[in-house]
């Protein structure tokens, strides 16, 4: 029986991004050996979107109050390269990871599936 999912973030600076997940977001973790941290994520959900181009996969963190989450993370020095934008289905922004990539963050307007 499938009992979880493993998400991988590829990074130009994996050590800095691991520190961000550990120290800024405060995610509990285990050390799989040699500093390879594996983080416990909040409850998750998955959606399948249609595409007519090459398939890709994305990771978005979710929150209940985007304005408050952005304020809290900004106070910790987190950079948001795009201001929050109303998408209809939710309010979306991105977090700049220390390694240089962006990670989606949104406040859904739909019922979260992870509460089922």
TrEMBL record:
Phylogenetic lineage: Bacteria, Bacillati, Actinomycetota, Actinomycetes, Propionibacteriales
Protein name in UniProt: VOC domain-containing protein
Tree of life domain: Bacteria
VOC domain span: 3-108
The organism of origin for this protein: Kribbella yunnanensis
TM regions (residue ranges): none
Record-linked PROSITE patterns: VOC
